[in-house]
Amino acid sequence: MDTVKSKTLVNLMEKLLDQSIEVVDLTQVLNEDTPVISLPDPFVDTKGFSIEQISKYDENGPFFYWNNFTMGEHCGTHFDAPVHWISGKDHQSVDEIPVKKLIGEAIVIDIKDKCDKDPDYCLTIEDIKEFEAEHGEIPPHSWVLIYTGWAQYSNDHEKFFNVGEDGQPHTPGTSVEASKFLANERDILGVGVETVGTDAGLAGGFETPFPNHYFMHEANRYGLASLTNLDKLPARGSILIASPLKIENGSGSPARVIALVEK
Ligand code: 23J
Ligand code: MN
């Protein structure tokens, strides 16, 4: 068996071990309180996470501890495949996505201040252009992460869903124009957010309903939802790795999402 000549990966491993490259966990914990999206009538919601013990060093398994769990594909930190949306129905399911497309540079666009002032705030083309003027054009094969600060509410269902007196969720997202722009004018892998889904709480009522789902998946791009720790990433230069399960014909999957950040 040959040895590889380049030491790039061995050097990477050394930097991981001496912590000059940090691994940041962008994943929320899964438990029975993990929030799942609540859609308006007559749509049917996904199941949340539940767990059932099989054995714990007892009569059902004296040497071992293990559980069964149940959950929807779109529960907790998860990956949206193009077939999740009708506009992407002829594209790939989660098992068909080339693994190379699970890894990309993380581009972090910070709109937290605007979302603090207005929970319905949606990323605009101007926000993207402003980011690009400072950090350069969003490169091909990158994950665009929208930092809204919403992960700070992930343990408080009331604040996380922020249902108003109108009975509607007021959570930030992406405007129709910005979704279209990112999907069609940039060659990204997809978009990642901290909210329960990749669209704003009110996005069902937009002129194209759920534009981030519609335009991203139409363009064969992906989504990541319920991320956390985006504040630990630089605006550019970190590497995101998403690892959805290989569910045959799956529309998405719970995922462990991590990022490599050079200190
Ligand atoms: C189905 C319908 C609407 C939405 C979603 C799913 C999600 O957010 C999701 O998890 O993909 S907005
Ligand atoms: Mn989803």
UniProtKB/TrEMBL annotation:
<dbReference type="InterPro" id="IPR007325">
    <property type="entry name" value="KFase/CYL"/>
</dbReference>
<dbReference type="InterPro" id="IPR037175">
    <property type="entry name" value="KFase_sf"/>
</dbReference>
<protein>
    <submittedName>
        <fullName>Kynurenine formamidase</fullName>
    </submittedName>
</protein>
<dbReference type="Pfam" id="PF04199">
    <property type="entry name" value="Cyclase"/>
</dbReference>
<dbReference type="GO" id="GO:0019441">
    <property type="term" value="P:L-tryptophan catabolic process to kynurenine"/>
</dbReference>
<dbReference type="GO" id="GO:0004061">
    <property type="term" value="F:arylformamidase activity"/>
</dbReference>
